Recover the amino acids of this structure.
């Protein structure tokens, strides 16, 4: 019988097969059912990776959408010393790309650590070269880096963000909660090679980017202000300077320049003193520019009229046992001339007619001694004592801008109130906040704080201030073709050594607006410690003129010369 | 009848397998595109930084004056024509006008 042995073989074969299947079944049962829970967790741990991801920081734009601050992903290189066989070879390869000496890299790679940064935040080109180099134990990660593509432009307003994208100064700090990207844990699923595969939930969105902030600043006017300020500071060998350009009707800041400047891209190398936005963090004694507000009070209180005659005491008057001088020996003059020729004695007499309480109330009404509440960090309130703390000379001192500390921002805001017909506005630097898709999240509208002065008094005062420029101390501020109103200021600084007014340290300033009958710009220029010449009319007024002239042209404000008349007719015809 | 059932079952099975394979394939494709998107976004940001740096007024002024020999327009060379029908009443901040003050075309006054 030949069947028997075959049968036996078949049985053996079947048995082997069956036991094989049984073994597999048993293993399957073991893995899939008995150890299922435990193994699933284990597998998930290997396949899935939870990472904390932060959306990119929002950008900052000027009012015309020009980029002023933007985030960019740049490569950083790290090493895993433990998995390196030949640290010195790797260091030699990296050295030319990173532009770091091989010895230094090697030292880092030989450290007894599991992770070490070799170089952070390189430029993108370096990253691309690194990616082409097959180096074991070396990795490249992308990190968000803040860029200020315009360099020092607007640096004091923009501020800057730190290594980990946190806002540290300026807009970056004040609007950090808006600019900051959303932080989120994201679960990635990886295959055996560590590649990311189909994400668990498709609905999972990447963390959203921070919001974009749009400033009221006009990049071009900012540039003009910075350039002209820098030129003046250099020419007068001054310690520094401030220039602010404001839209009087709204309080929107068009430019805010502080000199000396700094580059926010290389902020680590600069002392903190340079970062301060001195336009609002530092006060100074304004000197004669204060006479504008003494005059405003006197006109509104009907203490003076433009034609009221005031005696100039021939340039010398004794008040509270101290002598007050004028730069000229002035005799009888009208009240308008007191302002136009910047007579200290005339201004003191006006303040005396007003009295301490009224003068104090008026200066407070124009916003001195309180923050303007601009949306920038670090603002101070300035210093103005209450009348009960005044000494005998205080009334006279304050009338000529001494014994009072103001910020350049307060001054220009107060002058803007005269320019716009009497409304004290809240200055602001951010006009809009938009999300990454461009939808408006916050829309800032101009805010009136109060109306300290009537339109009638403003009108009278404006005429007087125009006279300052046409035939007074501010003639160098005149902009051909436009009516300018303003006031010069020259203040002695207190010598820190003696505690008394210094004979050679001074602050020269000019504050004004243009065109006087329909103001588009209110501008303050402050030159700190000019060495060549002290007078505000000489050091600051020309800066006002040059900034105003170029800014008006940039804004397309037509001059008030006859050419306008020829065109009025046609535009009137076009009117519906 | 029996064969038909078997064929249908096989077809269903194959469909299922194909579907799984396709999901994985598309998944990888999506990931590849995501990586590409990130790279393109990076490039866009990089270009934006470059553009912004190249168009900075400071640089334009420098190139215009030093390289091209241009000078700023002198007085009288630019004549701006007033196209505004009327001036707003002096003495009011005129709130509704405020928005116009932003991004307005040259020559218009709020």
């Amino acid at each position: 019988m030949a069947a028997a042995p075959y049968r036996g073989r078949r049985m053996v074969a079947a048995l082997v097969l069956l036991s094989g299947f049984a073994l597999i079944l048993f293993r399957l049962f073991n893995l899939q059912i008995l150890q299922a829970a435990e193994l699933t967790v284990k597998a998930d741990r290997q396949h899935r990776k939870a990472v904390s991801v932060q959306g990119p920081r929002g950008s900052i734009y000027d009012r015309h959408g020009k980029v002023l601050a933007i985030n960019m992903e740049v490569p950083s290189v790290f090493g895993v010393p433990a998995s390196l066989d030949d640290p010195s070879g790797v260091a030699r390869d990296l050295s030319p790309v990173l532009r770091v000496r091989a010895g230094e890299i090697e030292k880092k790679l030989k450290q007894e650590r599991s992770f070490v940064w070799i170089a952070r935040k390189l430029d993108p080109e370096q990253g691309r070269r690194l990616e082409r180099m097959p180096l074991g134990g070396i990795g490249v990660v992308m990190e968000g880096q803040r860029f200020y593509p315009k360099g020092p432009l607007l640096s004091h307003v923009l501020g800057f963000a730190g290594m980990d994208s946190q806002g540290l100064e300026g807009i970056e700090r004040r609007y950090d909660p808006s600019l900051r990207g959303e932080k989120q844990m994201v679960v990635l699923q990886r295959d055996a090679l560590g590649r990311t595969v189909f994400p668990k939930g498709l609905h999972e969105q990447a963390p959203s980017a921070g919001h974009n902030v749009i400033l009221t600043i006009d990049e071009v006017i900012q540039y003009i202000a910075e350039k002209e300020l820098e030129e003046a500071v250099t020419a007068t060998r001054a310690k520094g300077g401030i220039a602010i350009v404001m839209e009087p009707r709204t309080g929107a800041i068009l430019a805010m320049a502080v000199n000396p400047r700094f580059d926010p891209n290389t902020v680590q190398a600069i002392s903190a003193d340079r970062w301060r936005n001195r336009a609002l963090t530092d006060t100074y004694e304004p000197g004669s520019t204060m006479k504008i507000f003494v005059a405003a009070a006197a006109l509104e209180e009907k203490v003076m009229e433009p034609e009221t005659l005031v005696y100039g005491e021939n340039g010398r008057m004794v008040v509270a046992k101290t002598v007050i001088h004028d730069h000229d020996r002035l005799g009888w003059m009208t009240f308008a001339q007191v302002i136009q020729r910047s007579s200290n004695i005339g201004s003191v007499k006006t303040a005396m007619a007003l009295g301490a309480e009224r003068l104090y109330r008026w200066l407070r009404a124009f916003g001195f001694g309180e923050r303007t509440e601009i949306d920038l960090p670090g603002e101070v309130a300035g210093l103005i004592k209450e009348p009960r703390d005044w000494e005998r000379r205080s009334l006279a001192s304050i009338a000529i801008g001494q014994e009072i500390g103001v910020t350049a921002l307060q001054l220009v805001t107060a002058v803007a109130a005269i320019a716009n017909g009497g409304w004290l506005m809240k200055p602001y630097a951010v006009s809009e906040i938009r999300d990454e898709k461009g939808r408006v999240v916050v829309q800032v509208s101009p805010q009136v704080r109060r109306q300290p002065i009537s339109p009638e008094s403003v009108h009278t005062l404006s005429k007087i201030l125009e006279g300052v420029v046409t035939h007074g101390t501010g003639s160098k501020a005149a902009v051909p073709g436009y009516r300018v109103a303003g006031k010069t200021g020259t203040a002695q600084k207190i010598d820190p050594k003696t505690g008394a007014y210094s004979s050679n340290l001074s602050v020269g300033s000019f504050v004004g607006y243009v065109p006087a009958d329909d103001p588009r710009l209110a501008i303050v220029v402050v030159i700190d410690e000019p060495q060549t010449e002290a007078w505000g009319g000489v050091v600051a007024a020309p800066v006002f003129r040059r900034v105003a002239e170029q800014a008006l042209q940039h804004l397309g404000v037509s001059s008030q010369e006859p050419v306008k008349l020829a065109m009025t007719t046609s535009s009137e015809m076009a009117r519906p | 009848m029996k064969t038909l059932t078997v064929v249908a079952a096989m077809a269903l099975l194959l469909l299922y397998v194909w579907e799984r394979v396709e999901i994985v394939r598309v998944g990888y494709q999506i990931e590849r595109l995501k990586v590409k998107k990130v790279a393109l976004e990076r490039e866009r940001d990089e270009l934006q930084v470059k553009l912004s740096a190249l168009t900075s007024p400071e640089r334009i002024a420098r190139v215009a004056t030093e390289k091209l020999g241009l000078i700023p327009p002198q007085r009288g060379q630019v004549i701006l024509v007033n196209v505004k029908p009327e001036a707003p009443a002096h003495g009011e901040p005129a709130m509704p006008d405020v928005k116009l003050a932003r991004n307005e075309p040259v020559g218009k006054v709020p």
In short: Residues 54 and 60 of chain B are 8 Å apart (CA to CA). The first helix of chain B runs from residue 2 to 54.
